[in-house]
Amino acid sequence: SQTIHQWPATLVQPVGSPLSLECTVEGTSNPNLYWYRQAAGRGLQLLFYSVGIGQISSEVPQNLSASRPQDRQFILSSKKLLLSDSGFYLCAWRDRGGNTIYFGEGSWLTVV
Amino acid sequence: AQSVAQPEDQVNVAEGNPLTVKCTYSVSGNPYLFWYVQYPNRGLQFLLKYITGDNLVKGSYGFEAEFNKSQTSFHLKKPSALVSDSALYFCAVRASFSGGYNKLIFGAGTRLAVHP
């Protein structure tokens, strides 16, 4: 069966420091991968999606970037964090031929 | 514009009573509709989906949803609520864009509170 791992679960970072959140999916090949951000415990905003290695599409301009160095690995990064980057970040995946998106457990980022 | 609306910010129901969480949508083409549940500090869990076929879809934990094309609705229901059902519920629709690109559009979420 397929599983998704996301880490770290919680992160407190000072303003201006770098960020790296990682996500890996097991039990599937060539999935579509996604990064979402959830602010204030409610709405979900799609940040990035990827249909293959090295292929990243950004939904909104921002201080973050994403990379997909391997088929089942998706990384969310920033060179210099802003206070407004605080939030709950969710990695998700979908089988290429499937309809359903499945989410990881999320990473809480607090920028101080 | 393609969108999803969850008109209720919060739904309160007594344990053992039926519950309904409302969702309406606006998309071009045939809708692919989904419900997810989120417990505190956790990721979203998939509950059920409608792609085609029977308008009444059954999902996890005793939940079901009814697709109504004429009303463009996909309300989540459960015959008898449990306190453990208390969580944040998201409705989502797959929206299609030019170039064959599609993505999930989420509603703002509805907080369900089930009281003993």
Largest interface: A-B, 19 and 19 residues
Radius of gyration of chain B: 14 Å
Q: Estimate what percentage of residues of chain B fall within beta strands.
A: over 45%
Shape of chain A: globular
Quick check: average pLDDT of chain B?
93
Oligomer: heterodimer
Segments of chain B where pLDDT lies below 50 for 5+ residues? none
**Care to count the β-strands of chain B?**
12
Q: What's the overall average pLDDT of chain A, rounded?
A: 92
Helical amount among residues of chain B, as a percent range? under 10%
User: Largest sheet of chain B at a glance?
Assistant: 6 strands, mixed
Q: How would the global form of chain B be characterised?
A: globular
The N- to C-terminal Cα distance of chain A equals 38 Å
Give a description of the structure.
Chain A has 112 residues and is mainly β. Chain A contains no helices and eleven strands. In chain A, a hairpin with a 2-residue loop joins strand 7 and strand 8. Chain B contains no helices and twelve strands. In chain B, the strands form three sheets. In chain B, strands 2, 5, 6, 10, 11 and 12 form a six-stranded mixed beta sheet that branches. A four-stranded antiparallel beta sheet of chain B has the order 3-9-8-7, with no helix packed on it. In chain B, a hairpin with a 5-residue loop joins strand 5 and strand 6. The termini of chain B are far apart. At the A-B interface, strand 5 and strand 10 of A face strand 5, strand 6, strand 10 and strand 11 of B.
